[in-house]
Amino acid sequence: MMRRFAMLMALALSGTASAQPVVTSAGPDKVAVTVYRDPARGTRQFDLGWLQGYALVSETRRVTLPAGESEVRFEGVTAGIVPQSAIVTGLGEAVIEKNRDARLLSPGTLLAANLGQRLLLRRTSKATGQVREQEAVLRATEDGVVLQTAQGFEALRCSGINETLLARDVPLGLSAKPTLSVRVRSPQSVERDVTLSYISNNFDWQANYVGELSSDGRKLSLFAWLTIANGDDTGLADAATQAVAGKLNREYVWVSRGEATPIRLNCWPSGTTGDRGDELQESDEIIVTGRRIQLAVPRAVSAPAPPPPPSPERDVMAEEERLGDVRLYRVPIEVTVAAHSQKQVAFMRQPAVQVESLLRLRPDRGDFDRPIPRLLVTRNERSKGLGLPLPAGSLTLFGTREGRRILIGEGRIDDHTTGEKVEVTVASSTAIWARQRAVPDEEGGGYRLTLTNDLSTAQMAEVELPLGTKAVKVGKLTKRDGWMLWRVRLPANGSRELRYK
Fold first, then answer.
1. pLDDT, tens digit, for every residue of 448-459?
2. Under a CB-based contact definition with an 8 Å cutoff, are residues 180 and 77 in contact?
3. Model pTM?
4. DSSP letter string over 113-127?
5. What distance in Å separates the CA atoms of residue 149 and residue 138, rounded to the nearest whole number?
6. Most buried of 79, 176, 198, 241 (most Cβ within 10 A)?
7. Taking the domain 355-500, which CATH number applies?
8. Of 167, 174, 159, 169, whose CA–CA distance to 119 is shortest?
9. Which residues are the signal sequence here (predicted)?
10. Is the pLDDT of residue 7 over 60?
11. Contacts of 32 (CB under 8 A, 6+ apart)
């Protein structure tokens, strides 16, 4: 008997001795982020709630390793971390394995981890405000939260009064923040600076251009914001930030967002036979105090607040660098990109871009009456006031009328390298109209196209027709970029006509 007892004690002691110490790094001391655009988005605006770009995040942390094997927990990594991309430097050959801890602290995971454990049940009378506390054992969480008290079994929140469950501590394996852990082996106790680098989803960036057109329509003052979006649950504070422009190939990698077990509360109040179910999602409040964790059960789950508008860094200009076949825009100061928000930094200011404002139409077959879209056309050259790479983004165009600034239109700019022709559709004016009618066969067939200008100034217009189109009697066509082109100047308060087939 004594021998068996000694063996059990030895096993218990060996298990205790073999328990690995845990070293927790609560957050990075320094962070750097390089944001890459969604390669499939094109010129579309990104959706902050569904970002398909990504980022390279590099964090610097200081940790103290004990002698022997230990677990180092890097808390506060992004929720969109791609675990297999993580690289830990500064630990030498001490790293044995790495893991992403997917079980985040939430009402569902907190209850699941406390199944069979004693919790504190707090009840507050609505009428008197009197608070009563008693111990309760958590017996079930799947189809409803079932508790066992000294009075018997009951379902949570079915007594008709406010009820709250309190846990005494955080169960092992649960983390309030996204966490990456590594198991290391160190021959001696040592303090080290560690760099953790990884790819993270839930990021994107785009250019937002703001232009002001001169009164004669020939000069454009062009300014551009670098807009960085963070759709992750983790914010990046005081980050050295840069963005990469260019189309990089990237293979799709599925990343779990972590375990998010909902809580379903079911009970059958007196006088009803239906199932009244209230499902609580991860947004339920968890209050962590020095002594216990409180799981509050609210009456209703409110919708999250809308994301705040972008916060521009007005006195900072991003610096452009060439990086192989792509362009790198480096923000010269550290900026904070908060969770589920955007940050804007200026990256271009071209005060005098030479542009041509013209109207362009590609007619359909058949009869129609419609306004003609207006374009701004230039070439990305120094002689035109540009001559630098233009990343894809939106353009908001303003003009001046009677000394007041007015919105003229909005358009999209595609990726353009130096030397390329740049064309942006910005508006459709109802003062300039296209009218097309089919010509009867007995009159030679084809179509008669009439362009009418109701403005007090002359306007340049282009009509692009399929190759092989021929002008009949009126108008002259030339070939350009795979189209037959009719280029005509519309007189003020006048019209021009083209007959073709």
1. 999 999 988 899
2. yes
3. 0.69
4. HTTTSEEEEEEE-TT
5. 9
6. 241
7. 2.60.40
8. 167
9. 1-19
10. no
11. 57, 58, 59, 239, 240, 241, 242
